[in-house]
Amino acid sequence: MSATAWSATASSRAAIERGLTETHDIVVLGEEPRAAYDRVALTSFFAAESADELSLLPKGEYDDPRVRLVLDAAVTAIDRVARTVTYVSPAPRATQEPLANPGAVHTIGYDAVVLATGAAPFVPPVPGKELDNVFVYRTIEDLEAIREASTTATAGAVIGGGLLGLEAANALHQLGVQTHVVEMAPRLMAVQIDDAGGATLKRHIEQLGLNVHTGVMTELIDGDDDGVVSGLKFKDVEEPLAVEIVVFSAGIRPRDALARECNLDVAERGGVPVDEQCRTSDASIFAIGECAAPGGKMYGPVAPGYAMAEVVVDALLEGPGAFTGADMSTKLKLLGVDVASFGDAFAATDGALELVYSDAVAGVYKKLVISEDGTRLLGGILVGDASAYGVLRPLVASGIALPANPESLILPASSGAAPIGMPDEAQVCSCNDVTKAQIKHAVSEEGCETVADVKKCTRAGSTCGSCVSVVKNIIEEHFESVGKVVDKGLCEHFRLSRQELFDVVAVHGYKRFDDIVESHGTGRGCDICKPAIASIPASQFNGHVLDRDNRQLQDTNDAYLANIQRNGTYSVVPRIPGGEITPEKLIVIGEVARDFNLYTKITGGQRIDLFGARMEELPAIWRRLVDAGFESGHAYGKSLRTVKSCVGSTSVPLRRAGQRRSRDRARAALPRLAQPAQAQGRRQWLCARVRRGPRQGLRGHRHREGVEPLRRRQRRRRAGPRTAARRRPRHGDADLLPRPLPHVLHPYGRPAPAHGRLDRVPWTVGSTASARSSSTTRWAWVPSWRPRWPGTSAATSTSGRRPRRTRRSSAASSPSSTRPTPRTRPSPSRRSAARSGPRAPTSR
Amino acid sequence: MTRGDRTWEKVCLVQDPEVERGVTALVHGRAVAIFRTHDGEVYALGNHDPFAKASVLARGIVGTREGVPFVASPMHKHAFDLRTGQCLDDEHASVPSYDVLIEGGVVHIGGRRRAVA
Description:
The complex is a heterodimer of chains A (about 850) and B (about 120).
Chain A: E1 2-4, H1 6-18, E2 26-29, E3 67-70, E4 74-79, E5 84-89, E6 104-109, E7 113-115, E8 119-121, E9 134-136, H2 140-150, E10 155-159, H3 163-174, E11 178-183, H4 195-207, E12 211-214, E13 218-223, E14 229-234, E15 245-248, E16 252-254, H5 257-261, E17 272-274, E18 285-287, E19 292-294, H6 302-316, E20 330-334, E21 337-343, E22 353-359, E23 364-370, E24 377-383, H7 389-398, E25 427-429, E26 434-435, H8 436-444, H9 451-458, H10 468-481, H11 498-508, H12 513-520, H13 529-541, H14 556-560, E27 563-564, E28 570-572, H15 583-595, E29 599-602, E30 608-613, H16 618-627, E31 650-651, H17 660-679, E32 686-691, E33 704-709, H18 712-719, H19 742-745, H20 757-760, H21 769-773, E34 778-779, H22 793-797, H23 809-813, H24 828-836
Parallel strand pairs in A: 1-2, 1-7, 2-3, 7-18, 9-15, 10-11, 10-15, 11-12, 17-19, 31-32
Antiparallel strand pairs in A: 4-5, 5-6, 8-16, 13-14, 20-21, 21-24, 22-23, 23-24, 25-26, 27-28, 28-30, 29-30, 32-33
Helix pairs in contact in A: 1-6, 8-10, 11-13
Chain B: E1 9-13, E2 22-27, E3 30-36, E4 42-46, E5 48-49, E6 54-55, E7 61-65, E8 68-72, E9 79-81, E10 97-103, E11 106-112
Antiparallel strand pairs in B: 1-11, 2-3, 3-4, 4-10, 5-6, 7-8, 8-9, 10-11
């Protein structure tokens, strides 16, 4: 047995798998100098490290040593009587030339031959097609030539706007060449999609910066004096198109010369006609792939080629396999645009009805072709969003009745479309090839209950996420079918989910937990529902989280605006947005830490953490921090999460990946906002930062993204001294390197001095009227304080009582004595000035 | 202050602790967390959370679990029955509970309750 080319590889693979090598010796003759490679992925060749990445035989040989691979061997004749194949090796390079070659002639005998010669690109007889820089798009060699030419070219044209043509255009575009797509038909991909779909696709492609010319016929390729392409002339168009590269992608023709030569039947439009077992008119010669014409029809895509390969192997093993035609459905991403076409896409069936969803703004076009009685799906076209393909194609194949509202199949997922009646074999997640049956199995057998479980279990929806809504529907559908009620309740006190509770509050306007639990819950709540509910009125009505009615709902960190630590003390993390801070503020942090004896460390996220604060010290700590210009209420200092910022002409703090979207929006705004200044020749310093409310509802911080010019002081600070500060320790400068400090490296191994205090004195000493009445009882009180924000009168009136100081009262009450100089301490008047407006620069 | 001791210590007025919030008091040399529930009952438990090994119970969230009034420790959210001090998540753990007497609107804390037989 012998064969040639790409589908031959598939054929040989199948042969090895099925054990054909036990009875047959297999010789694969390939004309190209390299083993078969993946032509579908040809465009990725530019991204690939080497041609090997595309190879279907990375090792250069088959797994089974009984398969012999002969490369660079051009078959010249098949002698059907003597049953021999004649080939020359090395093969002549230029295929146009007659097979007068320098290679040696070999002859091998055969029992069966498989023709898998594929197809050759069709180059229409346009004058000038023989010029330099005119290419086809078929082999790695073609691509290498195109790449070579693109180094000097600025513009190129692809003739043919079909599937391959657009691939070629993508390749040219990737090479940085201004790309024109020239299509004779009035639309792109004329075979697969209709006019409206073509128009949508065209818009997409033009947005990418490519030029599309449809309905024009190339009349002439102009060349310059050196015989290199210089332009294209179109019929009925005055202006020629200046291009230096022309790539033909105007269809393919089966390579059936060998079959003609040995007098096999050849189809009228080319190709070797074969029966259902892929046998040609000679029973011992088979043809598969693009050179074959089963039923007189040629199949271009890969899948039918593979199917035919399987059939041939089956036939040689005397099995029953038959090739009866292939599904020509296509789904692909062209230049990043989803395009799919399946079944009777052009409504060729008698009486077929069309259902079209088109959104020109979003660039989405979807068409369903439905049978006359409206019960079955016959085919369809999807452009811009082919996520429904996985649902729709099985509907065509299985002939399952359509739902009553078929439009829900193609409406955007957000409108609540559910894949009703989706067959089990339907592919739900096209990224990871997960079918509905697999998801159902995961839910029914493997105990998955949520989308997250299913994602973990089957990987469905874990790549692009476009199918998550479908997955969710399938899960719910399953639970509904088995009669299981999915408990979405928040906890034992509420049957409603968080979202539902949010809506209930929005509708009824509840502001108190008592009202909510009385009307929609049972009992008195718990540690799960109380903090959850506390956030709902707070975010809807922007109420204070420590309002009298709701403060008992807050978890301890929110109730005390600090972060509880293992021994019951708290840590305070002043918020330092973007890492921008003044020396004065740093000094205040240091003073607070010193005066309250707080263990201070820079956290892994570069926040400054003050540990070991006792509950009753918190109001006093925050008082001093707020007075110094910090914001209270940021118990964790994490509302901007971990800020990585840089200093330069523009500064973009990057936030943690989970909040990337807001960050990207702010980032995207940067150049836009900088533009006016640049236009005036000004250099502007901008800082993009994403502003969020500190904690929902705390105070009037609305989510805000944007860019703000840096204040003058910040600019000066940011620019910094240009000389000394630039010196950085290098590994060679041993004396400059900081010495490692053991307790810094192991902060958790050694308790900070402040820790452990509370274990000894676990309560606070306070006094009230009733306590005073009993001389033996000392008892603690939760100070009814609330944080104060600069400039709020309410806060001033309710500013917290300072608890009576005990041991450190003398140090705390006279902090100024320990401060370096009085000059650096802002006077009260200056402090208020700083709060209300830009601060005057300090005297220099 | 020993068990069964009838000496009561005056601590505060009934309305002093906020509803469903706790306060800490030093009673007979021990840290006691005092809670007032929504129905007006006042309970007293030891303030020390045996799981977190920290005196924090008074700062927990008060609620009900299947009708049982409880406080959830702010550290690791272990729930303790306000009436008995029994941990609702771990039957082997409990905190002391103390007798509470309300007389003339003043909360008195008595001795540690014996375990319910």
